[in-house]
Amino acid sequence: MSGAGGGKRPASGGQARGGGAASGGGKPRPKPRVHAGGARPAAGDGQRPGGKPGGPAKSGRRPVPRPKTAREVALDTLVQVMEAGAYSNLQLNRALQAAELSRADAALVTELVYGTIQNLRMLDDRLDALVVKGLGKLAPWVLALLRMSAYQLLLLDRIPPHAAVNEAVVIAKRRGHAGISGMVNGVLRNMERRLDELKRPSALTNPVRRIGIDHSYPDWLVKRWIDRYGEETAERICAAGNERPHNSARINALKLSRERAVALLAEHGAEAAPSALAAEGVVAAGGGNLAQSDGYRDGWLTPQDESSMLVAAVCAPGPGMRVLDCCAAPGGKTTHLAELMEDRGEVVANDVHPHKQRLIDEHAERLGLASVRTVVGDAATLSERFAPGSFDLVLLDAPCSGFGVVRRKPEIKWTKTESDVAAIAELQARLLAEAAKLVRPGGTLVYSTCTIETDENETQVLKFLEAHEGYKLDAEWPSRVLQPLRANGIVGDDFEGMVQLLPQHFGSDGFFIARMKRDPDSSA
Fold first, then answer.
1. Which residues fall within 8 angstroms of residue 11, CB to CB, at 6 or more apart?
2. Is 159 exposed, middle or buried (0-12, 13-18, 19+ CB in 10 A)?
């Protein structure tokens, strides 16, 4: 799974689908009947003097639609994500492009969408005490409106409470009848009066429910992380998953140095600094979306998370190598591999989706890379296409549950289940066994995921090694990768060749990386 992402919130393709929030016990709330209510035109829009609101103009021209406000765009996006199963980042991008909002309004929409989805369980917990008939009886758009407004009241200090309430009531009047707007007004006014009380953390003694409600995660996931990492670390993971991701990008060293890139970004209004984790990485604040910058168009910059950048660095490909990226789309790690190889050799980028082949090709062309060759196929059948042992290096950035990138794709929390983790672990095992066939004796196999689930990571690798005696873990990672990991206590003297990065370690995505070496004398 790719960890690429640009902008304050993610702008690249997601894998988890949006769903309803968990409330109380952590199970998704039953979905209410879909309400097809659209925004009503404001009085005066498309009407002749003295006419009815929304009536045709005297000239007979079709009325011009009233532009949607930032909160209306956010509301529409939330309904699509939570009720229609749209991907949050893709739906948000479409909505912003269609709305043509100012930068400030677009930022507000982004904040409301991601903040609401991230905090669903906590918001529902507070709203449930204020909605007399219960949240389950509300139309989807009304529930989304209350959640979005509660997020502003409870968690956004820079928005005056009266403004959040008034805007919600205006939207309710446009979309619904007087009864709905009255209910929305009453619930939110009541919340406004009780803000001090409702902002306090829960007083629950059960750590699973306390963390689950306060940080908005389902109980089953909190319990797994407590069992694996302990209560304190599990809570830090949950808190980090609700933080805003920072802007980071990989600098194409074939075009310019990282120092020069930092200077160029500063000239364009971005406060940029070298990444503390990734040697080719920079972290930037301000300056807009990096994916829309001159640096991106000119091919010296690629938006990518810092943890994701470590994967190709751990692979450490050399010029002239033949490399295979098994699950390559959208191409972030593929192109990084080619850059590290100085664009000499061959990087075969495979993905199961035909429409993503062109996406990888476009990235390689933008970056000026001629060594990338894209192919389309199922990663579980790659040995039918390529000869056994025909690659110096094979990277399997495997499909996964994605719990390391919750801050970028928050709906993952509400759509994944324990059975999903088990099912995807079975798929990963098949893909890993297939990828191993293609590594030459003495070659390298790297396995990575953007999750923090043990069953998909450490346990997966150990099972593979037990079944494949010709492979062993390789701890000889490049010093530029190990240095920041050692300095922050993430790896120690007992490092064997695999690492689990948690989202709170560097403020980057949660990632797992393991590097294995095939025995030069191995025949299988």
1. 5, 89, 93, 289, 291, 303
2. middle
- Coil, strand or helix: which one is 165? helix
pLDDT of 117-166, one tens digit each? 999 999 999 999 999 989 999 999 999 999 999 999 999 999 999 999 99
Q: Looking at residue 410, what is its pLDDT?
A: 94
Position 24 scores a pLDDT of 34
Q: Quick check: 512 and 500 in contact, CB under 8 A?
A: yes
pLDDT for 18-68, tens place per residue?
A: 333 333 333 333 333 323 233 323 333 333 333 333 444 445 567 667 889
Picking from 280, 285, 252, 253, the residue whose alpha carbon sits closest to that of residue 268 is 285
Q: Which two tokens stand for residue 255?
A: 């075009």
Give the rounded distance of the alpha carbon of 21 from its chain centre: 17
Handedness of CA 455, 389, 320, 518 (dihedral sign): positive
Q: Which residue in 371, 367, 368, 366 sits closest to 348, CA to CA?
A: 371
Q: Using the 8-state DSSP alphabet, how is residue 202 labeled?
A: P
- Joined tokens for residue 516: 């294995």
Q: Return d(Cα 313, Cα 316) in angstroms, integer.
A: 5
Q: Pick from 268, 289, 396, 390: which is nearest to 333 by CA?
A: 396
Q: Using CA atoms, how far apart are residues 385 and 317, in angstroms rounded to an integer?
A: 22
- Could you count the other beta carbons within 10 Å of the beta carbon of residue 43? 9
Overall size of the chain counted in residues: 524
Q: What is the mean pLDDT of the segment spanning 93-110?
A: 92
Contact present, 215 and 118 (Cβ < 8 Å): no
Give the model's pLDDT for residue 292: 87
Reading the block at residue 167, the tokens are: 């805007």
Q: How far apart are CA 348 and CA 371, in angstroms?
A: 8
The predicted-structure confidence for 301-338, as pLDDT tens digits, reads as follows 999 999 999 999 999 999 999 999 999 999 999 999 99
How far, in Å, CA of 350 to CA of 373, rounded?
9
Cβ atoms of residues 410 and 462 within 8 Å: no
| Catalytic positions, written as ranges | 450
